[in-house]
């Protein structure tokens, strides 16, 4: 097989986007909609172009019929219809329908013909429609949000340890519909399918070895010439690449980026790359950073980091799981300002909009796909394993270029002490590594701290890079010490902890709980993070849900009003402490100390804000401090610690008359 020289000037850690060679036709907006509770749509051929759907209701896609008051919390089959015009596909082009997410099972018809089907509610998929597309088109989409023991998420197979009510349900809502954007993509016949970029930063030389894999569709090996240009903030960069391998399906190149600007939580440096192959072009943004596990430490770019975090159920009144920009911006600003920067954020893949925000502003995300409390029988079922791998693959191939993704979790609270649970983590961890070996592997264990786990081989955490565990109630210190005794050489991450809001709505008990929990965390130098359950309240039909339909675990209420416990969390999980030392001659001496215990990481380019002014602090490593002299002009002195990017992470008001 001949290999041609491939020119490439490059990149790293990209986001999915089409470029000049791909033409996008958004299909969002007004669609026609109808419920189909008796499943008559297919036998009655609702998908045909002449089906009289004009009298059906109108909805706006993205759409969740679960929160549309006309169909409130309907479970079953529903249909979406869209008529649109499109240019005739030229012989040297191909056309695809791209759905960012549809919950949960989907069948798609175009112009009366079945174009394809998909299962999985949170990940993107494409269906080729080149042979079906016309100048005038009728698109029909059948969606079912029903669940059973074979869906992910879904009910559990019969399990004697569960009550019948709990075994039939999972604890978040099955928000059905076309919940994320839809578009028609027209590409050249030979096109770039995806790009995967990996980097190995040399922290001493401040450069990075970049390996770029370009996945090609319908190219001949002799035609697979690839060009890449790279820029940062509009300024071009130059990298020389050598070709490692090439065939009709993919090209791999390698080069070194000099003077690399690394990505971290306080300096989220991003690059843009333009990749061209044949007549197709794809643009991607990316960041460069090094992740390592060293003993019981998590290192980011060679420095230990220990951080707070959160779980954010995808739920907002009136929107369900849609995650519109105005909600996303509000939530993530509160998360960043609360120093919740290392998060097992959800039990399922999040929207790509969230990952883009996290890339730009510096959040570290543990991505998780499915397997919420699957039973051993389900984990051993070849069908369930196949479905899970499919959803996992769609998530990873979408997310593998986001620098914010630091680890993949292969599940939550399944029976990890059983042979089936152990085999699941071993097999799925290896499967993840076969797709993306650059991230860490973990899962959220509800068993690793229990007394019957006495040796590493007793539980599936033997196969992870760092242990994640859900710990509630009292006894946190004993549980963490037990984990560390069994796995002395692995870091520990608390993927869930928290306390539900009492029925009377009073926060005092929760505040005491959080303060006590933080005291425990600071005693465990092997603890790399703690993710509160939850950032926000979420709707549920799971047994034990409050009468208003919500599970009130949130630091904030469903409408995003901030509860008192948020301020406690913000102060306790800020990476520094502000202290007033003394007031003399109209000036205050204020000390800013970077935490040494938890959370802790090096502070760079932080500012102390006061009285309309601000002063940039020097670099403070964990345990270091700086004293500043601040003029006092009133009876009180208010100072705030501000992160790079403008996020205020802690504010203190002192009595200036003392």
UniProtKB/TrEMBL annotation:
Q: Does the keyword Lyase apply?
A: no
Classification via Pfam families: Glyco_hydro_2 (PF00703), Glyco_hydro_2_C (PF02836), Glyco_hydro_2_N (PF02837)
Q: Which Gene3D superfamilies match?
A: Galactose-binding domain-like, Glycosidases, Immunoglobulins
**Which residue ranges does the record assign to the Glycosyl hydrolases family 2 sugar binding domain?**
27-188
Keywords, in A-Z order? Glycosidase, Hydrolase, Signal
Tagged with keyword Glycoprotein: no
The residues forming the signal peptide are 1-19
List, alphabetically, the InterPro entries matched.
Beta-gal/glucu_dom_sf (IPR036156), Galactose-bd-like_sf (IPR008979), GH (IPR017853), GH2_Domain-Containing (IPR051913), Glyco_hydro_2 (IPR006101), Glyco_hydro_2_cat (IPR006103), Glyco_hydro_2_N (IPR006104), Ig-like_fold (IPR013783)
Domain named Glycoside hydrolase family 2 catalytic is located at 292-518
Q: Which residues form the Glycoside hydrolase family 2 immunoglobulin-like beta-sandwich domain?
A: 191-289
Q: Which family does it belong to?
A: Belongs to the glycosyl hydrolase 2 family.
Which PANTHER family is this protein grouped with? BETA-GALACTOSIDASE (PTHR42732), BETA-MANNOSIDASE (PTHR42732:SF1)
What is this protein's name?
Beta galactosidase jelly roll domain-containing protein
Record the organism: Chitinophaga hostae
